[in-house]
Amino acid sequence: MSPASLLLLCALLPSCLCSPQDPFAWLFGPRGDCPAECDCPPSFPVAMYCDGRGLTSMPSIPSRIKYLYLQHNHISAVPDSAMVNASNLVWLMLQHNQIHSDAVGRKALLKLERLDRLYLHHNNLTSVPSLPRSLRDLRLNHNSIDKLTAADFEGMDNLTVLYLHNNAISDMGSSLKGLVSLTLLDISGNKLTKIPESLPAHVHQLYLESNSIDSVPEGFLGGFSQLQYVRMAHNQLTDKGIPPNTFNVSGLVELDLSFNQLERIPIVSTTLQHLYLQANQIKEFSLGSFCSFVDISNFSKLRTLRLDGNEISPEDIPSESSQCLRQAFEIEI
User: Where is the secretion signal located (predicted)?
Assistant: First the structure.
C-alpha cells in the first residue's frame, strides 16, 4: 500500500488505530513534538489528528504538519499566534466548531501560503475571514455569512470548489467575478432574490436552489462556456420571469426547476438529459418544449423527466411524444 493510500486510510479510521507499535516510532520518540491532546502517527509525520477531542482552543502545531484535522470540537477562535509554525499546512479541517468571525486573526489564515483545502463549514462565521490565495477547495457553508465583498476572494486564481450554501447571503455583487478556475459553486439556501451578477464563466455546476429568486435575466446561460448542471429548485420562478429560450442551450446536462410556480414547460435543448419540473403548476404537456420537429436525427436526448405534482395526467401526453422522447427511460407525471 502506498504512503498516500495509508494517509487516506488513517483519515477515515480512529487515529489510535494508525499509530500503536509503529516501527518508525523511534524517529520521533514516544510523542515527539505532538501535542498531548492530539495523535501524530509516526509513520505519517506530516499529519496531526485532533478531531473530536472536546478542544476549546487551537493546539500548538509543529512546523512539519501538512494535514491538520480539528473538526468536531468546540474551538471558538483562531488567533494569529495559533498559526505561527503552521506555514506548511496543505489541508486544514476546522468544520463543526464554534468559530466566530471576529475571533479569527487577520493574518492567521492569510499567511498559510501553501494551503490547498480549507473546511470551515458548520461554524458561527458572519463574514468571510482573510484567506490565503492558494486555496483550491473552500467550504464556508452552514454559517451565518450575510454579505460578500469584492476583497473576499480577490486573487484566488486556483479556487475550483466553493461551498457557500446555507448562509444568510442576500447580495453577492460581483464578488466572485475573478474566480477564473471555479468549476463548482453552491449558493443554495441563502436569501437571494435574484441571480448574482458576474458569475465565473467556467463553472460546471451551479446550485441556486432554496432561495427567493423569481426571474432569470436575459441570456443568463449564454455567459457560461462549460456549464452542465443547473439547480434552481425551491425558488419563486414564474413563466413571466423566464425569457424565451433561456434554457435552450447546448451543453446543459441537468436542469432542476422543481418546486417553483411554473405553468408551462420551458423550451429546453434537445441535448438536455435530465429535467426536473415536479411540484409546479404546469397545466399542459407541450411537446414543442422538447422538439421543434422530429425526424430520424432530430429528437430529444432526455433520459429523465419529472412532471409529477403538477396539473397534468398521463392522458395529457400526446401519442407522438414517443418519437421525440425516444431515449427517456423515466417519465413521471
Answer: 1-18
Phi-psi region of 249 (alpha: psi -120 to 50; beta: other; left: phi over 0): beta
What region, left, alpha or beta, does residue 31 occupy, with left being phi > 0 and alpha being psi -120 to 50 degrees? alpha
- How far, in Å, CA of 53 to CA of 137, rounded? 25
Cβ pair 229, 254 in contact under 8 A: yes
96 sits in the region (left: phi over 0; alpha: psi -120 to 50; else beta) called left
3-class state of residue 222 by DSSP: helix
DSSP state of 256: E
Pairing mode, strands 184-186 and 161-163: parallel
What does DSSP assign to residue 129?
P
Structure confidence at residue 319 (pLDDT) = 86
Q: Which three cell numbers stand for residue 304?
A: 429523465
Neighbours of 204 (CB within 10 A): 17
The three cell numbers of residue 153 are 476572494
Q: Enter the C-alpha cell of residue 311.
A: 396539473
**Per-run averaged pLDDT (10 residues), the chain, 333 residues:** 49 45 43 90 95 97 97 98 96 98 96 97 97 98 95 96 98 92 98 93 97 94 93 98 94 97 96 98 95 84 97 91 91 92
Pairing of strands 229-231, 184-186: unpaired
Decide the pairing of beta strands 91-93 and 304-306. Answer: unpaired
Do 58 and 78 contact (CB within 8 A), yes or no?
Answer: yes
Q: CB-hemisphere CA count at 13 Å for 131?
A: 29
Confidence (pLDDT) at 99: 98
- Residue 55: phi and psi, rounded to 5, are -70, 140
Say if pTM beats, i.e. exceeds, 0.85: yes
What is the DSSP-derived secondary structure letter of residue 324?
A: H
Task: Give residue 190's Cα distance to chain centre.
Answer: 13
Spell 283-304 as b/e; 16+ CB within 10 A means b: eebebebbbeebeeeebbbbbe
The Cα diameter of the chain in Å comes to 77
Going by the DSSP 8-state scheme, the letter that residue 27 receives in this structure is G
